[in-house]
Amino acid sequence: MRVMVVDDERPARDELCYLLREIPGVEIVGEAGTGEETIRKFGECTPDAIFLDIQMPDASGVDVARELARLGFSPAIVFATAYDQYAIEAFDVNAVDYLLKPFREDRLAETVQRLKRRIEEKNLGVDQTTQAEQVTTEQVQARDFLAKLDQIYTSIHAAEGREGKLKIEENGKILLIPFGEILYATIEDRSVRIVTRERSYLTNYTLTELEGLLKSSFLRVHKSYLAQLDQIHSIIPWFNNTYNLIMKDNSEIPVSRTYVKLFRERMGL
């Protein structure tokens, strides 16, 4: 089975590639870190299956899948995501699978077996049809595939509009912190600290996981910071065309050069 791996985080992509290479019968024929790169490379390597990160700098994985479908491609797609259960239900549809981050070897092995069965069934169906029937079948499959992706796309954006709560374990309790109360998250040693107006919480999340869990009003502004845009009080221009953000609790966080372009676009600067 020929697969392509897409993730904008190089460590996550390397980890998934490593795990896939350990599974017999899997050949990695392409990698990409952005939606644009994925579209460009897909036609060159023509994989049987593609592992797609949900959140990338220039497009979501669902956007990329929809574009591939409109171009006439209908690969077996696995979405890699950190979304919690209410959104995961949207992925559990025919011909589309999902993997939760961080990846588990046993779950990945199940996914690969599922993909292999689907690809074998698809190839068997092609072998048993005439050329004319094959064209018609492929058109129907492409239409159904795009409809399923539209269903997922709608479900995700509907879920993003809900007021969610972040689960944090502390002193044997599970605290539920409304997304709207979070000012920002930052890396502290090997953990991530969630900061609200009232207090802060040390958690076991990674910033990448939080990007998937939190609503779209949050944005990665630095390799060590994830900020809620609605909680920014003011923006101070800084060196090398970057910015410092003054949050509503008067704390100050940086916008690095890596993320400044995306930040400007989101803020209309």
Short description:
By secondary structure, the protein is of the alpha/beta class. The chain contains eight helices and 15 strands. The chain is globular.
What does this structure look like?
There is one protein chain. By secondary structure, the protein is α/β, with parallel strands linked by helices. It has two domains: 2-160, 3-Layer(aba) Sandwich (Rossmann fold); 165-267, Beta Barrel (OB fold (Dihydrolipoamide Acetyltransferase, E2P)), CATH 2.40.50.1020. The protein contains eight helices and 15 strands. It has helices spanning 10-21, 35-45, 61-70, 85-91, 105-127, 131-160, 207-213, 257-267, and strands spanning 2-6, 27-32, 49-53, 76-81, 96-100, 165-170, 173-178, 182-188, 191-196, 200-203, 218-222, 225-228, 232-237, 243-247, 252-255. The strands form four sheets. Strands 2-1-3-4-5 form a five-stranded parallel sheet, with helices on both faces. It has a five-stranded antiparallel sheet with strand order 10-9-8-12-11. The chain has a three-stranded antiparallel sheet with strand order 13-14-15. The relative contact order is 0.09.
